[in-house]
Every structure is written in C-alpha cells, then in structure tokens.
Design brief:
There is one protein chain. The chain is of the alpha/beta class and 221 residues long. The protein has one domain: P-loop containing nucleotide triphosphate hydrolases (Rossmann fold, 3-Layer(aba) Sandwich). 36% of the residues lie in helices and 25% in strands. The protein is built from 7 helices and 10 strands. The longest helix is centred in the last third of the chain and has 16 residues, at 175-190. The two termini are 24 Å apart. It binds adenosine-5'-triphosphate (ATP) and magnesium ion (MG).
Length: 221
C-alpha cells in the first residue's frame, strides 16, 4: 500500500475574497521514497506541506495516509496523528522562543514520555550529527539563521517519523551544512523513512529519487 495518496487537493485562503492556493493537486508517495517538490515562489509548495501535516485545515479532495482517511480525523486526532507519524521542518523554523535549543529538539521525545536519560542521549547524538552541539543551552533568538534551521531539522527528525516534510530545509545553510543535512536525510531514507523535500536548489532535488513540479496550485506535467 502507498504511504500517501492525495487526489485533487484544493485550498483557498482569505475569508471574504477567496484566494485559491491549491487547485487540484495529486500525489502518491510510496513508503521509503525521497521526493523533491519544486515550483516558483507562490506556487503552493508550503500549502501542500501544511495540508499533508494537518497544520492547515483540509478543504477539498482526498488524502489517505496508509489506510487513514485524513479528512475524517478530528482536530484532536490530527494532532495526535501528526505527533506519532510526521516530522515537519517549517520554512520559518517555528522554534519555541522560551525553550533552549536542547528543549526545542527534545520536545517530540518529551511528548512521547521517553525517559530523560534517553532523551539526553538522543539529543546529543543528533546535535552532534548536525554540528550544533555547542548551542544546546542557547535560545532561538541567539542563533544565526542556519543554526536555527539545523535546530528545527533536529527537532523534526529526532523521533525518526514515518514521514518527514521539509520546507526548504537548506534555504539558510552554507554549502557544508547543506551537505550535512542531505547526508542525514540520505541516512533516514536508507532506513526506510519517507521524505518530501521542498526546494529551490537543483542539487538538493538531484539527491531525491524524483521531483514533483507544481505550478499555480496544480501539478506541472
Ligand atoms: N495564510 C495565507 N493567507 C493568504 N494567502 C496565503 C496564505 N498562505 C499562502 N497564501 C497564498 O497562497 C499561495 C501559495 O503559497 P505558498 O506559501 O504555498 O507558496 P510557496 O510555493 O511555498 O512559495 P515560496 O517558494 O515563496 O515559499 C500564494 O499565492 C500565497 O500568497
Ligand atoms: Mg513556501
């Protein structure tokens, strides 16, 4: 069975005057795939990720995650489903300002009631892999853009969720750190996780098995 089946996904923004952001987007993802989504600014890439993660409310179309009909989940169940199955790297990082880097990365594990010693070990390992070990006691406002981005990535992948949604995950990174992230993604891909990576960078897309193109809220053939 496919991991994800999306058909005719649509989304409007705005209340009085509706602004269509997605106008019928289709996508099927097999378990373990690593795919890129590319398209111009404003074409609907972040909207797709926000719908797949359930952060934005689904409006029209079909969305199945394995055999779960995502349109039928209540908001509460959607939040639980996301926690258990999906890791999201937001375009604007969405770190919690009041939490240190350590606490931000540890949050998904805390929510799963993992014992503290194991949390400590896991956070240190991922921070080491992403080159942010020396930043664990800092707060988000004390970080550079690239450091914040790597913290957001660490938080999204620390539980190694079935589906990882990454919105321009290398947008704020230099070449070395961009490569570092792609190495981590490749490791997760090898372990069987499924990754969707929105990117403007052809090099990042070339690390993926295929590229889905989107234009004006629709698939571009
Ligand atoms: N919260 C919102 N309210 C109103 N319009 C929105 C909102 N979010 C997105 N849009 C509009 O929906 C369309 C798609 O936006 P989206 O953020 O998905 O684009 P994108 O492909 O991710 O672009 P970028 O590459 O710049 O990140 C755009 O026209 C945008 O202006
Ligand atoms: Mg975007």
């Amino acid at each position: 069975m496919s991991l994800i089946r999306v058909k005719n996904l649509s989304k409007n923004y705005g209340t009085k005057k509706k602004i269509p952001a997605l106008k019928g987007f289709d996508m099927t993802l097999e378990k373990g795939e690593m795919v890129a989504i590319m398209g111009r600014s404003g074409s609907g890439k972040s909207t797709v990720l926000n719908l797949l993660s359930g952060i934005d409310q689904l409006e029209g179309g079909q969305y199945f995650f394995e055999d779960t009909d995502m349109f039928r989940l209540s908001e509460k169940n959607m939040i639980r489903f996301r926690r258990e199955n999906i890791g999201v790297i937001f375009q604007h990082f969405a770190l919690i300002d009041e939490f240190t880097v350590f606490q931000n990365i540890a949050l998904p594990l805390k929510l799963r009631h993992i014992p503290s010693a194991l949390i400590e070990e896991k956070v240190r390992n991922i921070a080491d892999e992403l080159g942010i070990s020396s930043l664990l006691q800092k707060y988000p406002k004390e970080l550079s853009g690239g450091e914040a981005q790597r913290t957001a990535i660490a938080r999204a992948i620390i539980t190694e969720p079935k589906l990882i949604l990454a919105d321009e995950p290398t947008g704020a990174l230099d070449e070395e750190n961009g490569l570092r992230i792609m190495t981590v993604f490749a490791r997760l891909h090898e372990k069987g996780n499924t990754l969707v990576i929105v990117t403007h960078d052809p090099q990042v897309a070339s690390c993926c098995q295929r590229t889905i193109r989107i234009k004006d809220g629709r698939n571009e053939p």
